[in-house]
Design a protein that fits this description.
Layout (H helix, E strand, L loop, with lengths): L1 H18 L6 E7 L2 E9 L10 E2 L9 E9 L11 E5 L21 E3 L12 E5 L7 E9 L1
Antiparallel strand pairs: 1-2, 2-8, 3-7, 4-6, 4-8, 5-7
Length: about 150
């Protein structure tokens, strides 16, 4: 009985810590033969609004170019902290938006960002959002890739 209790206790804390940084499931959509879209629907942590960095999981982006990033509040849910920062990082930690994602996550604005860097993607990219502090804030970050 004690072993079961300890196992359940460990499981509880493991799940709680995994959920502590919010969630950001991603969905890949083929837009055309030469275009792919990855959409992150992000829900910030219930107490801090933060999310941990999120890596792309679709290997089809390798050899493609990051064409556009769309950042918007999910208007049907909890708002977000205005002027939050969005970064799209490559494996070396370079921001593919070259700072253009700073102050782009707003409560009631849909922002389109054109990346500055035009090298083909060579691996997974990382979504990094800073300064979003609204508890359970919900927003959408869409990455569009082209060949």
């Amino acid at each position: 009985m004690r072993q079961i209790f300890l196992t359940l206790l460990i499981l509880f804390f493991t799940v709680a810590s995994a959920l502590a940084d919010g969630t950001a499931p991603q969905v890949s959509t083929v837009l055309s033969r030469d275009m792919l879209q990855i959409t992150f629907t992000v829900t910030g942590d219930a107490s801090t609004g933060a999310i941990s960095d999120q890596d792309t999981t679709d290997g089809r982006i390798i050899g493609m170019y990051l064409y556009r990033v769309i950042v918007e509040n999910d208007s049907g849910d909890t708002s977000v902290t205005d002027n939050s920062d969005v970064y799209i990082l490559d494996a070396g930690g370079t921001d593919l938006l070259n700072g253009k994602g700073v102050d782009q996550l707003d409560d009631d604005t849909r922002n389109y960002i054109r990346p500055c860097r035009h090298d083909p993607i060579t691996g997974a990219l990382t979504l990094d959002v800073n300064s979003q502090a609204t508890a359970s804030g919900v927003y959408i970050v869409t990455l569009i890739f082209a060949k």
